[in-house]
Write a structure and sequence with these properties.
The protein is built from six helices and two strands. α1 packs across α3. By secondary structure, the protein is mainly α. Strands 1-2 form a two-stranded antiparallel ribbon. It has two domains: 60 residues, Multidrug-efflux Transporter Regulator, Chain: A, Domain 2 (Orthogonal Bundle); 54 residues. The longest helix has 35 residues.
């Protein structure tokens, strides 16, 4: 692809793996700045835009928040960045993921115990409903 080649939104979506709707959303959030437009207002994306979209998509795939992605994207685009700033964001996100996993494992253990204790027969007694009701 020549450096001067511009892509329409459908082509950019296909090349980046990001839907056209999300491309517009990311532009609205300011993650894609300076997207060129034709005289009739159609968006035109550059190879740099495609790289940014792939970066955003990968960041989303790893569960980073939009504010974290904004910060990471700025750091990625800044060649004078300190890798310590990037690591700090990733470590914070990792700790949050670990906490969510621990919380979900605790929910799994509790629900597994409740399911095991429920007879699942015609009787009205149900430890699952009792637990949900706080009994």
């Amino acid at each position: 692809m020549a450096a001067s080649t511009l892509l329409n939104i459908g082509q950019a979506a296909e090349r980046s793996g990001v839907s056209a709707r999300m491309l517009r959303h990311y532009e609205g959030l300011g993650l894609l700045s300076g997207v060129a437009r034709t005289e009739s207002g159609y968006r035109q994306y550059t190879e740099a835009d495609i790289h940014s979209l792939r970066f955003i998509k990968r960041s989303r795939d790893l569960g980073f928040s939009m504010s974290e992605i904004t910060e990471l994207l700025g750091l990625w685009q800044n060649r004078r960045r300190a890798s310590g700033n990037v690591k700090r964001i990733a470590e914070k996100h990792l700790a949050e993921l670990e906490q969510r996993i621990a919380d979900m494992q605790a929910m799994q253990r509790t629900l597994s115990t409740l399911v095991h204790c429920c007879h699942g027969d015609a009787r009205p007694d149900c430890p699952i409903l009792d637990d949900l009701a706080g009994n």
